[in-house]
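Continued from yesterday's entry.
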Amino acid sequence: MTDEPMLVLIAGPYRSGTGGDPDAMAANLARLEAAAWPVFAAGHLPVIGEWLALPVLRSAGAGPTDPLADEVLYPTADRLLAHCDAVLRLPGESAGADQDVATARRRGLPVYHHVDELPRRVPEETA
């Protein structure tokens, strides 16, 4: 148990294995987002790099299959990890998620592979 909420990066496949198919990428994002509630219910704040990177890409007139995507997706996750307390690595091949795990470990952050491994937050007492 912990008394402080953690900012938890949910990492897993987004573009990997999709061949650029927008429906497959949407399904991968939905799978990442499905982990958000369990992280939140454990008392923490979930975040997914694509939640931040995709609007940045759109504002540059690009999308996830544009060549600019590599210059936005990976750096966004790296910058975000400077503020995160932990990573939840979901199953599936993903160079980006593997990079997130390596960055987290270099920075001494815990890496979890199942939401049940996250420490549950002690609820705050109400006055």
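--- second protein ---
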Amino acid sequence: MSNPAQDEHSPGRTAPPSSDRRRVAFATVVGTTVEWYDFFVYASAAGLVFGKLFFSGLGANSTLVSFATVGVSFLFRPLGAFLAGHFGDKYGRRVVLVLTLILMGAATTLIGVLPTFDQIGVLAPVLLILLRVLQGVSAGGEWGGAVLMAVEHAPSKRRGLFGASPQIGVPLGLLLASGVLALTSLLVPGQAFLDWGWRIPFLLSVVLILVGHYVRRRVEESPVFREIAERREQTRTPIIQLFRKHAVLVLVAALVFAGNNAVGYMTTGGYIQNYATNPKGPIGLDRGPVLWAVTASAATWLISTWAAGAVSDRIGRRRTYVIGWIAQLAGVAVLFPLVDTGNIVLLALGLIILSVGLGFTYGQQAAFYAELFPASIRFSGVSISYAIGAILGGAFAPTIATALVDATGTSMSVAVYLAGMTVIGLIATLLLRDRSGIPLGPDHEAEQAVSPLRFSKTVS
């Protein structure tokens, strides 16, 4: 039995004080909330206003192209993941987190002051897409650093709970983005919202960035990376090592996240908001109530994400995932039948039910991913797996859903697509061994390098 007063990373290393762990958990929540607020404000605006303001020259295709710009950022997430993984494994987790936060905030604020298509023509959508690309690069680098700061500071038996800290930043970001947009829509209604009101949530990013930057600068570097740095054991080419030894693992891990991300992007990608409020669509609800319904679902997602992290510490990451995939499949089955009633209460209920499954396929992901990869290439492994999963899952989920409804005339085609992605996530999960509690420090690199793939018995 190990001494609880010592960190499992290294036999002789004293564990970080609980106050430090709480500070890290708080910093990762604040930082990821700010990052994802910025990211989701764009996605919501893409469904509500960008088609009219930046892509109006495309006529009937304006909404489809607007959603496609949401997906464009995902194509650049791997670039952010590659850069953050490389520098995070060589120079530390904290410096990467500060840089990604500044990049995201700058891009979001600049979107808030962009001229529209009517003002500067085709240059407007070009600049919008370029700034969305910068958001994608930032998001690709953000997640890996945040989860490793949380998980590598955590005691081994509470990694799921601590790892859920950056995870809840995603529903918190959605809750904050939807809430601010709903409040802005209420205070600046009608045409005024389209004229200038939509800019307010983007400009608020300046304040959030200052708060997030202050909090993150006060956090100590990950104890695992400090130990690696003291031994001068940083890998020179972590990405090359990752793909040479763990390419299949990266793909399987990516498919786990893809199953969650495709379904989650029905709201985080702005699809439901557009589907429910489109005056030419089958429902035609008012913008404000729909945004409040999404806000309520984000609160549910937050709670279920936190609960999943805690539950995974008790029953294991893999079992928690299986429960989550079943719940997510049930949520997919009831979502559109409830949304298509046109009743705002039932729409909110459908989103809330879906959010339970989304949380239970997300809360444990930080600990699950961190336990899959060796310490020396862990930042690269978790970041790139996450980024590829985002492309395979959420990148073009709103665009695919829009195209499916246009082609089939029914929302059931979207439900079938989402159910298929959920099953893919379940299968990928079953292909991986549960490594809950495995030591994370560099002393245990050989144990960590044993493949967690269930169909492989080789040591990498």
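The radius of gyration is 21 Å. Residues 191 and 197 are 9 Å apart (CA to CA). Will compare against the first tomorrow.
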